[in-house]
Design goal:
- With 345 residues, the chain is α/β, with parallel strands linked by helices.
- It contains 12 helices and 15 strands.
- A 7-stranded parallel beta sheet has the order 3-2-1-4-5-7-12, with helices on both faces. It has a two-stranded parallel sheet with strand order 6-15.
- Helix 4 links the parallel strand 4 and strand 5.
- Helix 3 packs across helix 4 and helix 9 packs antiparallel against helix 10.
- The longest helix has 25 residues.
- The protein starts with a strand and ends with a helix.
Length: 345
């Protein structure tokens, strides 16, 4: 695979994917919405195409995939709250249009990044297999990602020359993360080192260091005998309590003031539901949603047996090494922000 398109390249996973592919000598075309990050990717050697896939025309999609050997589709609207039409545009319509364009351009492989949010149902779940589905999806994000997966599998059946693979990485963290750790770090700053967590963060969860996700994407791209339409859970294969993960990062590695304040789940759930109801009128994302509280409250670990057996996947970065690397990146980012602030007066 000499030429690969990475969508969502200015997001956390996409940026790391571009860095990896360039190091492998791959000719990378990167699409995304953040122009500043796009310029950085261009300086590194990628060809950047500024584009919001949710608003792309069929002609723009055709141009984006033309000449590519593979597509790594990382772009998505991943939020616990928002308008249904926005999720449909970003996660369903955009994916369908990209699949159509990729098939028409004879792209050999399409790697689609999905989510284990498909499995979530406000219950403790352990070793969840790829085949599990809840009675109903928890929010528009999970629902539209399931719809996108259906499009990928339909394309796999219809376009035999394009092998499609679905990856479901759980709770990605690491350099350039814009979701998981930054939100918790912001709460810590606002509350002077105190972090309210449902049930004290006792939930046992799987998380995944970003380099391991990129490694899985590379395996899914190169594997010669995959069944098109296959889906794989991807994690660090080291389930741990949320409180222990956060204590290791913020206390042991970053040496920040860190205290977990245990809150009853039911209390936080009621507050979150009230905030979500109020957001219907304010049109502003609430700081708490039932899903975000639930994701921190209930155990969720995934079965990685299929990824191990079929893809040959093994994490290349351990959980503790991933936490250490994330802490190092956060220190570097904080130092760079401080220098920039001083320079600008």
């Amino acid at each position: 695979m000499k030429r690969i398109l990475v969508t969502g390249a200015t997001g956390g996973l996409g940026r790391n994917a571009v860095h990896f592919l360039l190091a492998q000598g791959v000719d990378v075309r990167a699409s995304g919405r953040n122009l500043a990050v796009g310029r950085e990717l261009e300086r590194m050697g990628a060809h950047f195409v500024p584009l919001d896939l949710a608003q792309a025309t069929p002609q723009q999609a055709d141009q984006l995939v033309r000449g590519m050997d593979a597509v790594w589709h990382c772009a998505a609207l991943s939020s616990p709250w928002g308008l249904e039409r926005d999720f449909i545009a970003a996660n369903v319509t955009a994916t369908g249009q990209l699949l159509r364009a990729a098939a028409a351009s004879h792209v050999a492989r399409f790697v689609h990044i999905s989510t284990p949010a498909l499995y979530f149902d406000y219950r403790n779940r352990h070793e969840v297999p790829e085949t599990f589905r809840p009675d109903s999806y928890v929010n528009a994000y999970a629902r539209t990602k399931a719809m996108a997966e259906k499009l990928v599998q339909e394309a796999a059946d219809k376009h035999r020359q394009m092998l499609c693979v679905i990856l479901r990485p759980r709770a990605i963290f690491g350099p350039h993360d814009q979701v998981l750790i930054p939100r918790l770090a912001r709460v810590l700053r606002e509350r002077h080192g105190k972090l309210p967590l449902p049930n004290g963060g006792a939930a046992t969860i799987d998380i995944t260091y970003v380099d391991n996700v990129v490694h899985a994407m590379w395996l899914a791209t190169l594997h010669k005998t995959l069944a098109s339409g296959s889906a794989f859970n991807i994690t660090n294969c080291e389930p741990a309590r949320l409180c222990d993960i956060l204590r290791s990062l913020f206390c042991d590695h970053l040496r920040q003031p860190f205290e977990i304040v245990s809150m009853p789940y039911r209390v936080l759930e009621v507050v979150a539901r009230l905030m979500q109801f109020a957001a219907r009128f304010t049109r502003r994302e609430p700081s708490l949603t039932p899903y975000s509280i639930g994701a921190l409250s209930f155990d969720m670990t995934l079965d990685n047996a299929k990824a191990r057996k079929v893809l040959g996947y093994r994490p290349i970065v351990s959980l503790q090494d991933g936490i250490a690397r994330t802490a190092q990146w956060m220190r570097q980012e904080a130092a760079a922000h401080k220098v920039a602030k001083e320079r600008n007066g």
